[in-house]
Structure formats: structure tokens, C-alpha cells
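sry for the spam today, last one i promise. C-alpha cells for design, 55 residues
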């Protein structure tokens, strides 16, 4: 058995609801991180100090 198959949630018997919730949580985390990085490139940090305030 290859390494990927050994960690496949379907083979491990993980309930589909748990896998779906984990995937949903990761999608939200990616969206939040993307928004934060975008805000940095635009010069206004979300929920943080802007570069103008750092002076």
C-alpha cells in the first residue's frame, strides 16, 4: 500500500461529515489568509496596524 492510500480517510473509516467539515474549515482559512495577504499588498492590513500608523 502506498503512503497516500494509508492516510486516505475513506480507508481509515473517517466519517464523511468529519472530512467535509475539515475541508470547509480549510477553505475558510485559505480565504481569510488570501484576504489578509491582499490587504498587505494594498497597504491596509485587515485587523492590524496600517503602514501609515507605524510612523
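last one done:
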Amino acid at each position: 500500500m502506498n503512503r497516500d492510500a494509508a492516510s486516505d480517510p475513506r480507508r481509515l473509516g473517517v466519517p464523511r461529515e468529519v472530512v467535509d467539515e475539515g475541508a470547509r474549515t480549510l477553505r475558510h482559512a485559505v480565504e481569510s489568509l488570501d484576504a489578509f495577504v491582499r490587504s498587505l499588498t494594498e497597504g491596509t492590513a485587515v485587523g492590524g496596524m496600517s503602514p501609515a500608523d507605524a510612523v
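The radius of gyration is 19 Å. ok im logging off now
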